[in-house]
Design brief:
Layout lengths: L2 E7 L7 H11 L4 E7 L5 H10 L4 E4 L13 E2 L1 H6 L4 E5 L2 E5 L2 H12 L8 E4 L3 H13 L4 E4 L3 H10 L8 E2 L1 H7 L5 E4 L24 E4 L8 H8 L3 E3 L2 H16 L5 H12 L2
Helix pairs in contact: 4-5, 4-9, 9-10
The structure holds 2'-monophosphoadenosine-5'-diphosphate (ATR).
2'-monophosphoadenosine-5'-diphosphate binds next to helix 5.
């Protein structure tokens, strides 16, 4: 019988996950289909029970359900539990197991471009859900020094205080981070600034950027945010959010099938749909 996979969220029509996973099922000869499902906030519990009842093989979870889904799962992986968010669910003999491949997806994409990332003094800009997942996954991977800079300092302090992995962190104001900028070997931009016309500008000034710094932005639509373009102009090596998107999908696919998929193929497919 054909296996069923899905992504649940609201909105969901824009998701590129169905494209990516259905292509992979074809490539690896797996009789399965991946479907986007619009699930409203208030229907989450019912939707999860329904998916379990029909024996879904696995699903992804996106905005606004990543945190709220946790009480409705049978098991939550320790990294996902500490982050407090799940983006991938695997049905194992009728029990729903939750994982987070967003942060580990970011780390896998970074590792591919910057294998020596663990030695880099790092700055994360932003302190939302994405920043939290990336911070925890980098700390779990052994990165020693990760500073945080966010408009609301309390949210950055929470990330620092709640992280179960050993890591050295200072929470900086925007001004302080700008002054310290040349000290960083790696800068990770996680705010939505630059994603749309309504949110233009830079999250902080790159005036003191060292040209040897590796600068990454989790935005991939547009492919290159004003922040990344500015960093590139200053001579820095840059990475956009496409690897993170592709690797979070690749890690989910591996959890479901045991197969490590071809990430170059996935990247090309997504790029062709973004018009890149
Ligand atoms: P996600 O879960 O995708 O990370 P989020 O939780 O909404 O999204 O987090 C977005 C992050 O970008 C937050 O840290 C937010 O700052 P606050 O914690 O102060 O809200 C930051 N952010 C969003 N818009 C911003 C702006 N215009 N200027 C500075 N920071 C901004």
């Amino acid at each position: 019988m054909q296996k069923l996979f899905a992504v649940i969220g609201d909105p969901i029509a824009h998701s590129m996950s169905p494209l990516m996973h259905n292509d992979l099922f074809g490539v690896y000869g797996i009789n399965a289909h991946y479907h986007p499902l619009l699930v409203k906030k208030e229907s989450l519990q019912e939707a999860v029970a329904g998916l379990k009842a029909i024996g879904i093989s696995g699903f992804n979870v996106t905005v606004p359900h990543k945190e709220r889904i946790i009480p409705f799962l049978d098991y939550v992986d320790p990294l996902a539990g500490s982050i407090g968010a799940v983006n991938t669910v695997v049905n194992k003999e009728g029990k729903l197991h939750g994982y987070n491949t967003d942060g580990t997806g970011y780390v896998a994409g970074l590792q591919a471009a910057l294998p020596e990332f663990k030695n880099k003094r790092t700055l994360i800009i932003g302190a939302g859900g994405a920043a939290r997942g990336i911070y925890f996954a980098l700390a779990a991977a052994g990165l020693q020094h990760i500073d945080l800079c966010n408009r609301t300092a309390e949210k950055a302090e929470l990330i620092k205080n709640e992280c179960p992995y050993e890591v050295q962190t200072t929470v900086y104001s925007k001004d302080m981070a700008e002054k310290e900028l040349s000290q960083y070997g790696l800068i990770i931009q996680t705010t939505p600034i630059g994603m749309s016309a309504a949110s233009q500008g830079l999250p902080l000034s790159l005036q003191r950027l060292d040209s040897k710094t590796f600068v990454s932005d989790i935005i991939y639509n547009p492919l290159y945010s004003p922040f990344l373009l500015q960093a590139q102009k200053a001579g820095a090596e840059i990475q956009n959010g496409l690897p993170m998107f592709v690797y979070q999908g690749a890690l989910a696919f591996e959890l479901w099938t045991g197969i490590k998929p071809d990430t170059n193929r996935m990247k090309k497919l997504v790029l062709s749909h973004l018009g890149g």
